[in-house]
Amino acid sequence: MALTVEQLGRTNVTGNRLTVALKVTFDASYPTNGEALDLTAYVSNIETVHVEVSGGFVFQYDRTNKKLKAFEAGADGDALDEVDNATNLSSVVTYVTVTGGRA
């Protein structure tokens, strides 16, 4: 399955920088190592990615593999663990802001 991605508003242009806000909804089966999300479809030369904490999950954008990863509190209480394969995250919505240069 896949993420549902909706751009919120227009692309903000400041000088030669672009900023895009996205609403991201997960599906019913999270895959190990994250969901595919190519942010270079919105900005080139990604500088920063901010992903809000949502539904008790923490998210990380993997630039190398172009994936959005979901993490939750680990059993040991000290570290975050990636969400298990096939976990249903269909009720989870998060917001991503990406800033980068023009193509």
Structural features, described:
Helix content is 0%, strand content 49%. By secondary structure, the protein is mostly beta strands. The strands form 2 sheets. Strands 1, 2, 3, 5 and 9 form a 5-stranded antiparallel β-sheet that branches. A hairpin with a 2-residue loop joins strand 2 (12-14) and strand 3 (17-25).
Give the ordered list of helices and strands: EEEEEEEEE
Using the coordinates shown, work out and report the CATH topology: Immunoglobulin-like
| Name of the top-level CATH class | Mainly Beta
Percentage of residues in DSSP E strands: over 45%
**Helical residue percent band:** under 10%
Form type: elongated
What can be said about the biggest beta sheet? Answer: 5 strands, antiparallel
Average pLDDT figure: 94
